[in-house]
Design a protein that fits this description.
Distance between the termini: 35 Å
Keywords: Signal
InterPro entries: CsiV
Largest sheet: 5 strands, antiparallel
Protein name: CsiV family protein
Oligomer: single chain
Radius of gyration: 21 Å
Order of helices and strands: HEHEHEEEHEEEEE
Shape: globular
Organism: Pseudoalteromonas qingdaonensis
Length: 269
């Protein structure tokens, strides 16, 4: 019995600092700066894109829900699907609203405001519903300044240590990248083996945003910004940040191509 109690006590003492169940919600508003000619955004062909990989993608399901809602309301056509990525004309299969992950490749632009159903709380991280976001004044101010919103979203998550905290995917905007010659060759070769080769769309903004807790809150963001003419191995700009933040304060991250407003709020569940 004593040995069992010692094991339990040791486990309690070694438990990470986030074991008290502290939860937060983060709101992110990304907008275009329009400074595409800046010398800070020269094409970077040596960028290691493996450093920008994510652990959790909450946005893709929210994007798909948004597309299906728009389609149901008649604001968006049903998804177009084809079995030949090199076909001049797209053969539409079906006329119903059932957007799936593979249909994103046929989109010119992702929704600016991903939709999710309002939830009080779940055991896993989840996207905030539009009515749970609070940057309405900031969006109006950006509109008056002629700034275009690229993405406005948020999610709730548990406060975790730097080692345990996941990297949440942050992506949006236009599908702007083109395939490199190597990727085209690989895709052509895959056509001989598979009737439905997969092509991952390259977005104007992509990467991850991570928040960890160590007495204070810290934000790490590794993002790439793409422009027309970029390829899947060559991008225009990098947007990497590491900053300690204060809960409840709005923090501004600046870049020649994009700007980002971030606020982290305590969430009591």
């Amino acid at each position: 019995m004593i040995r069992k109690m010692l094991v339990i006590l040791a486990a309690m003492l070694s438990a990470p600092s986030y074991a008290d169940g502290r939860w937060f919600e983060i709101e992110v508003l990304v907008f275009e700066q329009g400074q595409t000619g800046s010398t800070e955004t020269l094409r970077n062909e040596e960028l290691d894109l493996s450093q920008y990989q994510y652990d959790i993608d909450l946005l893709t399901p929210a994007y798909l829900q948004t597309l299906n809602d728009q389609c149901t309301k008649g604001e968006l056509n049903p998804p177009e699907r084809t079995t030949d990525v090199f076909a001049d004309t797209v053969q539409t299969q079906g006329n119903y609203c059932d957007y799936q992950g593979d249909d994103l490749v046929n989109l010119q632009r992702l929704p600016k405001y991903p939709i999710a159903e309002a939830q009080n709380h779940t055991a896993s991280p989840y996207v905030l519903a539009p009515e749970q976001l609070q940057f309405n004044e900031q969006r109006q101010s950006l509109s008056l300044k002629g700034k275009q919103v690229l993405l406005h979203t948020g999610w709730r998550f548990a406060g975790q240590s730097k080692r345990a905290a996941p990297r949440f995917r942050l992506f949006g905007g236009e599908q702007v990248a083109t395939m490199s010659k190597l990727a085209e060759q690989q895709l052509e070769e895959s056509l001989l083996l598979s009737p439905s080769p997969h092509y991952e769309p390259q977005w104007q903004l992509d990467g991850f945003l991570k928040v960890h807790l160590n007495h204070y809150l810290y934000i790490t963001s590794n993002l790439v910004t793409r422009a027309i003419g970029d390829t899947d191995t060559s991008v225009s700009g990098e947007f990497s940040q590491f900053r300690r933040v204060i809960s409840g304060e709005i923090h501004y991250f600046d870049h020649p191509q994009i700007g980002m407003l971030v606020q982290i709020r305590r969430f009591n569940h």
